[in-house]
Amino acid sequence: MTDKVSRKYAVVDLEATGASATARIIQVGIVIIENDRIVKTYQTDINPHQTLSDHIVSLTGITDQQLAKAPEFSQVAKDIYQLIEDCIFVAHNVKFDANLLAEELFMEGFELRTPRIDTVELSQIFYPGFEKYNLGQLAEHLSLELEEAHTAISDAYATAQLFLKLQEKIKALPHQTLRVLSRFADSLLFETRMVIDQALAETETPHDYLEVGDILLKQDQPEREERHFSISFETNMALLGLEPRPQQASFAQSVSQEVGLKPHFIQAQAGLGKTYAYLLSLLSQPDTSQLVVSVPTKLLQDQIMAKEAAAIAEVFQTSCHSLKGPANYIKLDAFQKLLDQVDQNRLINRYKMQILVWLLETDTGDLDEIKQQQRFESFFDYIRHDGELDDKSPFKDCDFWEKTYRKAKFSRLLITNHAYLLTRVEDDPTFLTNRVLVVDEAQKIFPALETFSRSQLNLNQAVLWIEEQLKQSKDLLVTRLLETIQFQLSYLAQRFHHQHQAEVSPELIADLSENVAALYQEGYFYEDLSKICQSRFDQYWIESAISLDKRQTVLQAAQPQLMRLSTLLPETCRTLFVSATLEISPTVSLASLLGYEEYVMTSLPATQSKDQKLWIDASMPSPDKSDQSAYEESLVQRLTVLASFEKPTLVLFTSKQSMLSISDQLDQLEVAHLTQDKNGKATNIKKRFDRGEVNLLLGTGSFWEGVDFIDHDQMILVICRLPFDNPSDYFVQKINQTLVNEQKSPFYDYSLPVMLLRLKQAMGRSSRRDKQESAVLLLDSRAVNRSYSHLIREALGQDEQISVQKFEEIMSEVSHFLI
C-alpha cells in the first residue's frame, strides 16, 4: 500500500442552448472536491445573446429574461479558469461539458489542459445492475441530492456526490479485481482510468471472495434454518405486515383443503392476491417438502422472486430459488477466455469490466441482472451457458448453472417458468416426484406445451455453421455430407422464397435426416439440426421471421396431436392450477385440453368491480377492413387525446408490426411514450413506466397477462383489438381439427371463449388491488356490430360496468371517472 495521493477535482455541469457542437453555454455549475470533501461551489448564468428554444426552456427552467441580466462568458472566463486550472475535470458525460467549456475558454485566451474523468462510464461499470445511467436515475438509486434537475449547480452537486460514492466503492474492491480492471481501463474515456489506478495504488483491501483465475466470486452464504409458519393464513400475512382481503382468504382456504393427488383447478378473479395465498397456504403444510411454482414468463418469475418470495425468505427464512434455462446464466470458462485478451472494441472491454464487478455482487449469475445487454447482444451470447461443463474446468465447483441445478433440488420454494418447467421434466422425469406444483396463469401452459412439442431450425444460421465446418474439414466423406446437407437446406429456402412453397414433404425430411445421422456418426453435431430430424415429428413447413432486424428463414417441425401435460407429470406430483380464467366454455375445459379426466374444480364467485369500468368505442373503424391506414390514423388520434389526460396509460396490441407503426406515428407527433422492444425489453420499460418517466406505454406479448401494474392509483388501459387467435396459425388449426372431430364448434366452443378469457386477463392488469381506479377502452367495434357481439358484452358484463359510446362521449365520461 502506498501513501494516499491528494487530488483536487472540479465537478462541472453546463446548461447550453442545445446538444450540438455549436451550442452556447447558458449556465455553469462547479463543485470543488479536495481530500474527499466538497469544499467550494460556484454558479453563474451566462448570456448567450441567443433566443432559447421552447425545449431548453422547458428542460432547464431558464428563460431569456433571466439570461438577459446575466454576464457574458468573457466576463467570468478568468474566474472559471482560475478555479479549475489545477483540478481534475469531472463531469457526467465529460465529453460534452469539457469540450464545450474548453472551447469557450480558449476563445477568451485560456487553454484548459486538465485531465478528464467521466462519471457515466464509471457508473456503468461499478453499478452494473442499473437500467439507466442518467443523473436523475442515479440520484434515485443512490440517494443523491438533486433538488432541481437540469440546473447546472444542482446537477454538478449531484455529480460530485456520485463521484465520491464511486471512489468509495472502487477503493473497497478487492485488489485482485482492481488489477484485472486496470488491464482494460484504457478503453475508458480520456483519463477516467485514473480513479481505478489510484485505488489500485492506495489499497490492499482484504477480501472474502472465492478466487479462480482472474475472477473473484461472492462466497455462498449458509442456508438459514426455516422458521415455523402458522397454520393460520391471516397470522402469516400479519407476520409479513400485510392485511388479507376476504376473497384472498377464501382462495387460501380452497388451496389448503383440496391439494391432493387429483389435480385441483381453482378459478378466481384477478387482483385478489393469489400469489401470497397459495404460497403461504402450501408452505405452511408440513408435508410440502418442496413447492414448485411455474409462471408464464421470466418477467413474472423475476417479479415474484423480487416481491413475494423475497418477503417470505426474509420473514420465515425459507430457502427460495429461481430456476431458468442454462442460457440465462454466465459461463465462467467462456468469460475467462475473454479476459485473456484486450479487445479492439472499447465497448466489449467496458463490458468485461462491468461483469468483473457484477461477479463480486451476484448470488445467481443470472445475466438478466445486467440491464444494458442490448448494446452488444453478441458479446452476451458468447458468455451464455450452454448447459455443458468440462470435468477439468477450474470453475466446476462454482459454476452458476451447476449451482442453480443443485440448489433446485433442495430449496423449499422453487420459482420457474412454463417453458423451462417442461424442458426440465423431459430431461429429469423425477424432478417433480413427491413435490407440490402450482401452475400459475394456468391457461398459458397449454400454448407452452405446443411450443414445447415443436422444433425449429434457423436455416440461415445452419448454413453458416456448415460453411465453417467445410473450411476446417479435411475428410472427403464429411465434406460430401456437409455439402449435401447445405444443398438440401438451401433448396428448402429457395422453394419458399421463389416458389412460395411453405410445406415440406416427409420425403425431403427423410433424405435430410439420413445425411444428418451419417454426419453425426462422423462426430459432427448441430443440436437444432439433429432435433428437427427426430422421428416424432410428422409435419414440416417454412416460415419467415425477423430476428435482430434481419429476416431469417426457419424450418418448423410439429406433431399432429396435441401434447397432454398429464402424460409428463409423475403420479406423485400434487398439482394446483390457478387462474382467473380456467373455464373456456360449457363444452371445452382447460383440464380436458391438458389431458385430465379426473380432477377437482373450484370456482370462486367474482364480484363486479366498482373501481374499473369498460368503454367500447362504437365509432372506431373496424380493424379487419382493408384500409389499414384509416384504422391506424384513428388509433393515433385517440392515443394522442388520451395522452393529454396525463394519466398512466397502457396500450395493448395484438401485432408487433402494428405497435411499431403506431409508435413511429406518435414519434412524428412528438407524443412522449415507451414502446416494447423499440425502447427496451418489457421488464425495463415497465419499470420506467412505473417510475413515471412517461405516461404512455405501448406493449404486446407478455403485457397481456402476468404483468401487474399495482403501483398506480389510477390507470387507463387501451385494448386496440379483440385478441383472437390467428386462424392460420398451425396450433389453432390443430385445435380446431380436434374439436371438429369431437363434433364441437371451433369458433363458439373455443376461439370466442379463449379470446374473452384473454381479454379478461388483460383487464386484470390494471385492477390489482382495492381502490385502484381503472378506465378500460376497447377500440374494436366488432364488439358492437358482429353477430357474436352480444356474447362478448354478456360475458364481460358479469365482471365489469360496460358503456358503448362514441369516442368523444367516452372521453367525457372517462374524465369524470378519473377525477
From TrEMBL:
Keyword list, A-Z: ATP-binding, Exonuclease, Helicase, Hydrolase, Nuclease, Nucleotide-binding
Annotated Helicase C-terminal domain residues: 634-810
Lineage summary: Bacteria, Bacillati, Bacillota, Bacilli, Lactobacillales
Function: 3'-5' exonuclease.
Residues spanned by motif DEAH box: 440-443
Documented EC number(s): 3.1.-.-
Family, similarity comment: Belongs to the helicase family. DinG subfamily. Type 2 sub-subfamily.
Keyword Heme: no
Binding-site list for ATP: 268-275
Superkingdom to which the source organism belongs: Bacteria
Enzymatic class: hydrolase
Gene name linked to the record: dinG
Protein name: 3'-5' exonuclease DinG
Xref: SUPFAM superfamilies: P-loop containing nucleoside triphosphate hydrolases, Ribonuclease H-like
Organism listed in the record: Streptococcus saliviloxodontae
Domain Helicase ATP-binding, chain residue ranges per copy: 234-493
